[in-house]
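INTERNAL AUDIT FORM
Audit reference: QA-55
Scope: verify that the stored structure record matches its stored sequence.
Auditor: D.O.
Record contents follow.
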Amino acid sequence: MTVLTNKYIDHTVIILDDYIYCGCQKFQVSDLDTFIDEYNPSADLINEGWAKYTGELTSFETYQELSKHENVDVRIAVAKHFNTPVEILEFLSRDNDCGVQIVVAKHPNMPSETLKLLSTDDVVWVRGAVASTPKTPIDILWVLSVDDYCEVRASVAQNPNTPNDLLKVLSTDADAWVKVAVASNPNLPIDILTILSGDAHYEVREAIARNPVTPKDVLNVLSMDAYSWVRASVSRNPNFCKVS
């Protein structure tokens, strides 16, 4: 994660995740030789870029500078970076681009208080990002579970840390896609899973058929479902081979 320029390069170089972007060209970080052949940067530049990409030798001032960069992709890279200081994450949570807010909401070091503020954001996708984040406090998940938008409620339903009693509430949601999200949760209790396996919406039954925790007796019933999509998902479930 860095922005680099020097006299050997005509374009700003941005290292994001596993790629190097230079002008309209894109290279994998692992393919530095091709990048060097194409743009002939100095060895010092590459070494500096790699150190900042891996989070080494990156000062607070550097993070601060990049968090204000005009290029939204750079700000997103800062929001993703594992070593980004909490103060910078909090600053990025107030970014005017919702794409940055969505990414920063999912950062494992995001403070709970900041997540709470983001959970009330006007943008549905920002609230959805908070709803899907494992670190989001349970009390916030309960609030988001009654959000007006089904996308947010579905994100709560998919969260691996959503408690069983909240999953039970969401399993009766009026929107079928929220129930699909519940049915896809790998921590879904067997009693709720069994009830959803008989849901009127075939998409919900298909999600149950795909869930790796679905027991063999439920899969056995779903293997005779009227909908081919459900039967196909049963055939791909790792537990299906155990069905006698």
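Auditor finding: record pair retrieved intact. Residues 1-12 have pLDDT under 50 and may be disordered.
Action required: none
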